Each structure stands twice: as structure tokens, then as C-alpha cells.
Amino acid sequence: MNTSKMALVIGANGGIGREACLALKRHDWQVRALVRTPPAEQNAHGVTWIKGDAMNATDVLGAAAGAQLIVHAVNPAGYRGWDKVVLPMLDNTIDAAKATGARIVLPGTIYNFGPDAFPLLREDSPQHPITRKGEIRAEMERRLATAGVRVLILRCGDFIGPQAASTWFSQGLVQPNKPVTVLRYPGDYSIAHAWAYLPDVGETMARLLDREHALADVDVFHFGGYWLDGHAMTEAVRRATNSPRIPLRRFPWWMTAVLAPFMETLRELRKMRYLWQSPIQLDDRKLVAFLGNKPYTPIDEALRATLMGIGCLSGRSDSAHVAV
Hints:
Layout: E1 5-10, H1 15-26, E2 29-35, E3 48-51, H2 57-63, E4 69-72, H3 82-100, E5 103-108, E6 120-121, H4 132-145, E7 151-155, E8 158-160, H5 168-173, E9 183-185, E10 193-197, H6 198-210, E11 218-222, E12 226-228, H7 230-241, E13 248-250, H8 253-259, H9 264-271, E14 281-282, H10 285-291, H11 299-309
């Protein structure tokens, strides 16, 4: 086994960071993880855990020593403090990459696009965000593209997965730690939305990096994932839970309006409502051509693992399974 490749994952306690660690390990990388709260087991999942803060440049630079890769998967919890911490954290990662010669991998989102780019988002679609969070996301990509370091951006839709705790699916469509008795869809039932299964995202990152020689210095790919409207998502959840009568209802946006003045997370959530008012699909033709296939686990299997992982379904989830 070749373990000479060293990767640093910043934000490894989050859903995408955890899956990036697992996937890179499967692809023969040595993995370090910079987190504020390391697990009790020092080498959990075969990862070297380092206690530190992404806001501290010295912590990031020290953790990145000798790394050929830095996965920047850190985000403020609950949407809080985006305008204060997101760009400084990224700047620390960029400085560390300049010092070590590492490539930066950024899990991208659809927030940096406005309605003028919908419904089909290509890698070169115009970025005219209409929210402050979207503006910051667009600025993150701009800084990476002009930093003089190698960059890989993999843009995804909303996440599902056994470790996807704070997502639209696990906090909006269903209620965690409860059997699914109703599905609440944030848009019109006929509007399709882009979803990404976290274990597949991690595996796709690793497969792209396996072909480092074929990547551009600054390369962007779109992860198509699943494109489902409210009806299709409900049918998939019914199949995954073996509960054919789960009803489909409207997400209670009125409730978020009532509570938003008291909860920053809900205030930020309401600003993202526009993403549910139009069909949004990520064009993955570049990704599929590069990898040679569609790297997506069947939706029923992905949803079953997700529902087990968030406590909505009994059984054991296995986030190590990915499509090949």
C-alpha cells in the first residue's frame, strides 16, 4: 500500500469532512484531521486527529506540514457567523497551501448562484448570488481561483447521508430521531431539487484526486446526484421505510417567519427559500466523462442509510458503501 500521500481535512467532525477522511483512507492517503474537539480515540477511523482552530493560522499551518492536499470542509455551525469567520478560515487554508504546495479541495454549493442561472447549473454558469451567504460562497471561489494554488471545487446540491445532521433533509423534510410519519417539502411538489449523498461525494473527491495528473490547476466539477421533485422524494422515502402511506405536506415557512427574530439559524434559512422556488439541477456531464461513470448510490439505498443514521429507521447504516 502506498501511504506516502498526506492529506489534511479541516472540519472533519462535519458530514462532508468525515466522508472525505474515510474516502481518502480507502484511496491510500494518510489523513490528518484538524478539529476543535478530537474524538476520544486518538486514531479513530485510522485518522491522525489534531486539536486546533481553523481561525488560527498557526494551527492550520502546523497541521498542514508535509501535506499534498488540504480539504477545506469547515463551516460555522447552524449558519451562524458566516460574515465573520468563513473568509478568514479560507485565507488560513490558502496560506497553508502556498507554504506546502498542497492542492485545496473545496466542497462547493449552489448558494453562489442566483435565479438567472437556473434551472441547469453548469461549471461556468454566471454567479449572481442574491443572499449574503451566496456572496461569501462566490467570494470563496474567487479567492481560490486567484490565489496561485492548485484548487479542486466539487459543487453539490443539498446533502443527505447517515452523518448529515444539519441539512434540509434531516431538519426540514423529516424529524431526526423519530419514525417518518410525514414528509414536509419546502417548495411546490412539482419543483425538482438537487441532492447529494455524502458518502458518494467523499468517494468522488478521492477518485478525482486519483487522477491528479489530469486535473487543471484550478478545476471545477458538478456533482449531479439525484434530481427529485416532492412527489419523487416522497415515493423514495416510502420505499426506503417500507411505509407506502407516508403523506406529503408543505414545509411550514410561516413558522420560520414567527421564530426567525429570535433564532439566527432560522433567519438565515429563510434567505435560502429562493432555492426551492425554481427547479435546480447540476449538470454533471464533465464529471461523468472524467470518471467514466455516474458515481451515485441508488436513491433508495442512500435514503435508507440516511434515515438509519439520523435515527428515523431502525437498523445499521453503512456510510462506507459507495457506487462504483
